[in-house]
Amino acid sequence: MASRLRVEAVLFDLDGTLVDTLPDITWCLNQVLLEHGYPALTAQTVRGYIGGGTTAMIERVATQFGIAHAIALHQRYVTLYQHNLVQFSRPFSGVLELLEGCRQLQLPLAIVTNKSEEMALQVSRTLLPQNAFGPILGHRTGRSLKPQPDVAWEAARRLSVDPQRCLFVGDTEIDLKTARAAGMYSAAVTWGYGLTHTLQAQAPDFCCEQPAGLLRILQQVCGTAHAFTEHGDTAKSY
């Protein structure tokens, strides 16, 4: 007999899941590279560097160009990006409708990101509906980065929901590993920055091509058990 799946809260990644921040990240990173005498990177290349936090991204760039000491690069990027967070960034198409649907379902929501918490707060408050989320948790001193589960557990605790009743939604394998480590259901979204085959290799509970598909899934699993395939959005059997 299929086991019962019930979702009582949703934890969202930010970059690549709710908001397309790639244009601003690419622009700022290329400005810094040009200032230091290095060629600009394509958005597709930068896209592959997103997910593990700013430090990890800069380390990958430094490795690519053979930069021995990336501290100055990192400091300049952070300063520039802080002043250009929402120059070009926008919510992905369908995300605002997804969040409205979650509101109608009375689902508590949180954001869990490896972006600095200060930046995450500014992006979400500027581009996403006010009061849509409870905790907005990003990287800060003393807090582990995803895929360590601590920040996901903190979000569940603040929402007063059992982690086993939370759905963690993200666009990279880091998000799916976080969900697994935290004992949460996982939803991979393919409209963001992760590669579909990489996401599917993590065996997420759900895989969604569009925000509308994720909303349909949430409408199905809020308190009930369902297994279905619809419009390219897939779920395991429960």
From TrEMBL:
The keyword Hydrolase applies. Its cofactor is Mg(2+). One of its GO terms (cellular component) is cytosol. It catalyses: 2-phosphoglycolate + H2O = glycolate + phosphate. InterPro entries: HAD-like_hydrolase_sf, HAD-like_sf, HAD-SF_hydro_IA, HAD_2, HAD_sf, PGP-like_dom2. Pathway: Organic acid metabolism; glycolate biosynthesis; glycolate from 2-phosphoglycolate: step 1/1. GO terms for molecular function: metal ion binding; phosphoglycolate phosphatase activity. Belongs to the HAD-like hydrolase superfamily. CbbY/CbbZ/Gph/YieH family. This is phosphoglycolate phosphatase. It comes from Pseudomonas brassicacearum. The lineage of its organism: Bacteria, Pseudomonadati, Pseudomonadota, Gammaproteobacteria, Pseudomonadales.
